[in-house]
Specification:
heterodimer, A: about 110 residues, mainly beta, six-stranded mixed beta sheet, four-stranded antiparallel beta sheet, 12 strands, about 50% strand, globular, B: about 120 residues, seven-stranded mixed beta sheet, about 0% helix
Chain lengths: ~110, ~120
């Protein structure tokens, strides 16, 4: 079945550092891809999305590009802030009957001032 | 006001008790989902529903049941709670991923359930 693998955390960075969180997927066809963010004590919020190859999703300074050839959707941000501290989940939308989201295990990011 | 709400937000119960978690949405979406989150495991699908008359099992439905009382309401029940059902539970809604849309899901704030 479909699966998502994302880099293990935790990741600790200093403010203004460059962030990359790797995500690769296994799926039949070309599923929609997502990054969700979970701030402490809160639910999941959609951060960005992409629906087809070479699409770039972007939001709040974060970017990810749908790479069909490498089946990847890596999350990047050029300059992180303390407020970006959260758990980040990569996900794909299952193309079977449920259209469920298949999630990676999450990467916890801590940004220090 | 939040589009997807869950009640209660926190619940502590004992082994063998029946528990109901409720989810309501004002987004007008037909599709609703229940997920469970465990540390280091991401989220896993328990049940989903595409409309009031449609209920489907997800990958970890054993020990759970659901009820879709209306388009806007989808409840999850644990008939006889056990400690390994201690987890964070999320409700989500979506529209179909048609016409080039991504089909993203919108999540409630979660219910933290502890079974002693």
């Amino acid at each position: 079945g479909d699966s998502v693998t994302q880099m293990e955390g935790p990741v600790t960075l200093s403010e203004e550092a460059f962030l990359t969180i790797n995500c690769t997927y296994t799926a039949t066809g070309y599923p929609s891809l997502f990054w969700y963010v979970q701030y402490p004590g809160e639910g999941l919020q959609l951060l960005l999305k992409a629906t087809k190859a070479d699409d770039k999703g972007s939001n709040k300074g974060f970017e990810a590009t749908y790479r069909k050839e490498t089946t990847s959707f890596h999350l990047e941000k050029g300059s992180v802030q303390v407020s970006d501290s959260a758990v980040y989940f990569c996900a794909l939308r299952d193309q079977g009957g449920s259209e469920k989201l298949v999630f990676g295990k999450g990467t916890k990011l801590t940004v220090n001032p | 006001d939040a589009d997807v709400t869950q009640t209660p937000r926190n619940r502590i119960t004992k082994t063998g008790k029946r528990i109901m978690l409720e989810c309501s949405q004002t987004k007008g979406h037909d599709r609703m989902y229940w997920y469970r989150q465990d540390p280091g495991l991401g989220l896993r699908l328990i049940y989903y529903s595409f409309d009031v008359k449609d209920i489907n099992k997800g990958e970890i439905s054993d020990g759970y049941s659901v009820s879709r009382q209306a388009q806007a309401k989808f409840s999850l029940s644990l008939e006889s709670a056990i400690p390994n059902q201690t987890a964070l539970y999320f409700c989500a809604t979506s529209i179909p991923g048609l016409a080039g849309g991504a089909g993203e899901q919108f999540f409630g704030p979660g219910t933290r359930l502890t079974v002693l």
